[in-house]
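Hi support team,

I'm filing this because I wasn't sure whether my run with s-citryldethia Coenzyme A finished correctly. The job status page said complete, but I'd like someone to confirm that the output block is well-formed before I use it downstream. Pasting the exact inputs I used:
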Amino acid sequence: MSVTAKLSLNGTDFELPVFEGSEGEKAIDITKLRSTTGYITIDSGYKNTGSTKSAVTFLDGEKGILRYRGYPIEQLAEKSTFLEVAYLLINGELPGKVKYENFAEKVCHHTLVHEDMKQFYEAYPSKAHPMGVLASMVCALSTFYPLSQNPNRPPKAVDMTIIRLLAKLPTLAAWSYKNSLGHPIMYPKNKYNYCENFLHMMFANPTEEYEPDPVAVDAIDKLLILHADHEQNCSASTVRIVGSSQANLYSSISAGVIALWGPLHGGANQAVIEMLEKIRNDGGNLQKWVDKAKDKDDPFRLFGFGHRVYKNFDPRARIIKKSCDDLFEKLGVDDPVLDIARQLEEVALKDDYFIEKKLYPNVDFYSGIIYRALGIPTEMFTVMFALGRLPGWISQWKEMIENGEPIGRPRQIYVGEKVRDYTG
Ligand code: SDX
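And here is everything the job wrote out:
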């Protein structure tokens, strides 16, 4: 017997179907609410509203669970590679050796971008934020591949666009960094794997030999895995809604990059480091800053704390925090900002405000500390997040297109002026 939700409005009872997902999550299906009751729902920030049924990622915010296509994030972070996780998210299954090698080979041979794009970099101010550069460069890719304009093209053409995005994003990202330094760009080398190539393009220069440090390569690969998808977060929802208009995949991903930039979302990893340095420069009085974060009259928030879904520890934060110790020991790095982060976490997690509101460290709280230890500049932290999140955005977009979902167009309740005559 199908479960329904009963709604009583103005003395009339309505029954609405209930949907249950594979992990027991339940939703009231309001697809026909307006046509049957004349009412809509309203839910600012969509805190209680599901936008889709998805098979890509499962989160349980109360239990701190995160799984990509059913695989626990802890196992993938420990045993997989970023490219294998990208394949898993996009195609739904782990590739196996042969498919993985074909996939990695294709990505490796599409890392170059059209030479004409180099002049775009020259047009930016040298201090341009790399997220602004990356978002526009990703959209600009669509102008070099006119056949990519139609997202419903045969699967082969869509697969090529997916490969190009995965292959070229690290190149575009590294080149924006080199451009900001006024240094010559470094071309990708096919002898390197995904993360080695990124570090090569970021830190190599024509005047000296450079070989990516395997410790740094492993740390980057794990961080990219941890950022790869997170169901219907702000930027993934942006990619879906832009893609739902049948805009091409490049422009949908570009919109995702822009949404991620915000300090309440992916931009938090940069904001965390800037916050920790501010606290350090202010004498390290942690309680003062925790009290500021609690003060409703003070706009200051503790960046890297709190989450829309996790009301328990973000499992990714737990993994990254542990990686800090391993990495710092291997690299022989000692960063006072890590000490401040740890002390701040300890003070906040004992504070009733944070306990009552279930505010725990999220993925952004420790990730910037690792990027710093690897020599990645603060302004590139959110670019690192975008590199990691790319396969997630692609998988969400692909699922939306393949399911033939309608264009996203929410309703509203009008609260403005009633009709009035023009007397100008
Ligand atoms: C990411 O959605 C995702 O999955 C995102 C992400 C992903 O992988 O895609 O996980 C990545 O974006 C992580 C979040 C990074 N952002 C930050 O670290 C910025 C700081 N955090 C907050 O701004 C906030 O916690 C959000 C934006 C993350 C979540 O905001 P919500 O869900 O809208 O919750 P809210 O703002 O309504 O907060 C609930 C209460 C409020 O107090 P009241 O109005 O109820 O009294 O908690 C307070 C907030 O003021 N609060 C904080 C706080 N976060 C929430 N107070 C102080 N410091 C904070 N960090």
